[in-house]
Amino acid sequence: MRYTEDDLKDKTILITGGAGFIGSNLAFYFQENHPDAKVVVLDSFRSGETLSNGNLKSFGHFKNLIGFSGEIISGDINDKDLLLDLEVNYDFDYIFHEAAISDTTAQEQDLMIKTNVNAYKDLLDLAVAHNANMIYASSAATYGNAESPQRVGREAPNNVYGFSKLSMDHLSREYMKECDINIVGLRYFNVYGAREYFKNTTASMVLQFGHQILAGKNPRLFEGSDKILRDFIYIEDIIQANIKAMAPNTSGIYNVGTGKARSFQDIVDILQKELGTSLECEYIPNPFIGSYQFHTEADIATTKEALGYAPAYEMEEGIKAYVPEIKRIYETEVK
Ligand SMILES: NC(=O)c1ccc[n+]([C@@H]2O[C@H](COP(=O)([O-])OP(=O)(O)OC[C@H]3O[C@@H](n4cnc5c(N)ncnc54)[C@H](O)[C@@H]3O)[C@@H](O)[C@H]2O)c1
Q: Is ligand 1 within 6 A of the CB of residue 202?
């Protein structure tokens, strides 16, 4: 089902995590395609506070929203007073829930469960109170090193981040049973594309290798990178899945990938081809063995069937489409 401009006229859309990578892309999608919809972004932005691994606690950045003219709220989804205020003062039709501790290497189990799982429950209650559709970000991290192709129902998370996303899915199923609202969980695989730069070292390796190559540095890969395969998915296909998940009677949990596993070496090779370079690669030991995914490949049969989702970008096409933005970010932010 495709939404025409009129379908979302006078609808109110909440995007949590809207100053982050995927959330900000969603915000612009609605602004550009549904100018009469009211879009509210809620994000804690970045405070400078770090986790024990040295990464920022939240990656939201105002630059992801330059040009966005909807309402912006700086706030924490763990703040119950704020959620009560949203319940009383707004009437949401759709909630796109992207806010999370999105760092798969974060070690703070308490903060992870509180933010990713407990706050999500409060947002589900908000959705129920408003009779709103809930579309939330789950993750391929729920699968850990489960056998490929990964299927919903065969999870084996190997870090607390993946565990938290699986807990969100369990919670969602309870709400699907007991409540009338439409709830869709989207298990994104490895996403790359515009507006990910401010995730720093947690941004995709497509961007990070792209910038290494543009700086004339040898791309640095983990040893055995030709055998570390992931399902890499371009942001446009993530947006497509979210929009298709707005259709009625689509409650469920779905994989969002391309259905193809590609290696980290492939990324470098495609980038070098697009950028016209032939730098030699350096291979370094992988410090994340034990909590690292070595082969992901989404089974997208049910996503296609239930949502009408069809990935439009193979990695060659996604990287080609992304290269001008990789260069722009390099010129404006890195150099
Ligand atoms: N990017 C990927 O490859 C990928 C893959 C699987 C799942 N996901 C999930 O998709 C969602 C979006 O990811 P992303 O890549 O855009 O990451 P991101 O870090 O850019 O976006 C998350 C946003 O949430 C905000 N946030 C964090 N804690 C918050 C809090 N307590 N209150 C309010 N806002 C808070 C951050 O400031 C940030 O802007 C996340 O739930 C993530 O776990 C992403």
A: no
